[in-house]
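[job 4471] stage=fold_predict status=RUNNING
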Amino acid sequence: MRQRTPQEKKLLSYAKDRRNAYGENDKSSRKNIRRNKRIPHRANRHRAHQILEAAIGAVDEVAEERVELRVGRRRPKEWRKVADVPLGEIVRARLP
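[job 4471] inference complete, writing structure tokens
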């Protein structure tokens, strides 16, 4: 592999490096991303546990079908991170 010139390195940096443009403090993302992933998962586990608690006891075919319908009825909660913006776009937006 040949050695890149400083200009090529800078162009690659602008294309590949990413910056948080969401508007929050970038340091807070360390905690918030994990928290936002954790909360929906916990809510889904809690809901499934509540539904399954109702089915404890003697085996009843009707109750079993009801529980299966309730578990599969609603879509589980989820959270997705918004992709960070390439550094080149951030720099281009800040230039006059």
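[job 4471] summary: The chain has a mean pLDDT of 86.
[job 4471] exit 0
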